[in-house]
Every structure is written in structure tokens, then in C-alpha cells.
Write a structure and sequence with these properties.
With 309 residues, this protein is an alpha+beta fold. 50% of the residues lie in helices and 13% in strands. A hairpin with a 5-residue loop joins strand 8 and strand 9.
Amino acid sequence: MIEIPDAFARATVGREGARGRTWLEGLPGLVGQLFDRWNCVPDGRITHGGVGVVVPVRRPEGTAVIKVSFPHPGNVHEPDGLAAWGGRGAVLLHERDDERFAMLLERVGTSTLAESEDGDTVTAVAGALSRRLAVPAPAGLPRLRERADGWEEELRIDAGRMPDAVPGRAIDHARATVREFGRTQPELVVHGDLHGRNILRADREPWLAVDPKGCAGDPAYDAGTLLKSRAFSLMESDDLRRAVERTLDIYAEASALDRERVRRWAQWHAVTATYHGIRHGYRVARGGPDRDRVTAFAAHLSLLLTPPR
């Protein structure tokens, strides 16, 4: 039987309530069944992310990890994204059990890009991986373009309910991005949550992506996720505008994407992140002064990324 990390258990119950507690109670038995199904034995310390545990294992073919995630719509297409890449820039998917939200994956290091490298390197590596991950999307992946109507409606509702949260011209620019880019997007695989903590040190390649949302659309969409993940670092910059422009330049060059398209998606992400922070907080700042500080920064960033009229 495995022992669930206390921090993961607390976070799961805090987020999911009774449903999370019930799932945690059954998790050791579920992992035990996966050991038998995939002919594995435990082989190291269990780690975890925000919504799943990662269990190092050994099998006749060598080492691997079993990842089991809390059942949630956002996790459904993770194995589809990994399967589409086939190990190109991302961890290899060996086996999957979609009903249990479980996968047998290539074992990589635990050192993340975010904790190992400086900001410019994080941005360059993430951009280069984005370029490699932009492969033709299989039919089963959800299309980002199908969310465009919902995005536009959410912006309308949030602007009405929180009129002072984001400057009007920043909201208008985000709406224009959805209208111009949201409904017509490339048929390419997009990670959906590409940032330094979701890029791990590996042996087969220097860095490999993990934890994709698994969707299809414009690769420039991921630029906003990367920029948001660097919020605390950017806050400490002496010249925020220059730091942001440098990040966009590096990412666009490394990913071989149009720089203006990268900026537009990053601006839209900053607007939506502001509203999300007011409603729910952030994973790194659920409440209190830290949440307020990050929310204010997201609003400021959304305006900084908006061209003057």
C-alpha cells in the first residue's frame, strides 16, 4: 500500500471536499491494482502535483512512474496529448487507464525548469518545446476554437460584474483577440499549461514537458501561460515593460511564432487571469494580500500588453 503525501491530501480535500476525501480513501487500493495490471513494483518516493500523485515504479522493461489524477474534465485529454507527441519533447506514455485517470509514464527527473534556470532560459526552453509540440492534432482532441464563444461571453459578464478590475481598453483588446484569433485556429496540438514547473529535467532529452491539458489550436496560446507563471519574478523587475517585452521577444524567437500573435494571446491571458484571481484566487496565492498583489499585477500586465489607442 502506498502512503499519500499529507500536503496532497490536504489540498485535495480543501479543493474537492467530501468527493476528494472519498477518492483519497480509495487511492492506495487503486494504485495497488495498477501495480498488478502493469506488472510494476514501487521504486522510490511518491511525489505529487496539484491534482495527481506520481509513484516511481520498476517493471521488467525498466523504470517508469504511475500517475493518477483526481477525476476532472481538465485531465481527460492529458494522455491524448502525450500520445500525439510520442515522446517528441514530452514524456513517453507507456500505458493508460482512462477510466481511472491513470497513466504509466517514462520516468524523468524531479528538477523543474523553473527552479533550475534563470528567467531567460526558462522562456527560451519553453518556447523551443512549444515549437516541437506543435504537431498535427488528432481528431479526438478538443479544439480551442470551440471555446471562443464562451470566452467572449465570460469577458462580457466579468466586465459587467467587476467593472473596476480591468481597464476598459484592455478588455476591448482581449475581446478583439477572441474575435480575430479565437474562432479560426491551426489544427496543431497545444500543451495548454506550458510553464517552467511543467518542464522536467530528463536523460533522453535535456528537458521534457509534462502535464498537458491536451487541446488543439494556436501554439501562441501557450505564451500567456508562460508569462503568467513568471509573475513573481517580473514583479521584482526594475523595468517591468522592458522585462515583459524581452520575455515576449525570447519566446517568439524560440517558438518561431509571430511576435504580435504571442503578445495578443498573452494580453488575453492577463485579462482572464485578473478576473479568475478575484473569483477564485491562484494556486500560488489562494487569498489574502498575496492574492490581491497578484491580481493587481495581472490587471497592470493586461494594460501593459495593450497597445495605446
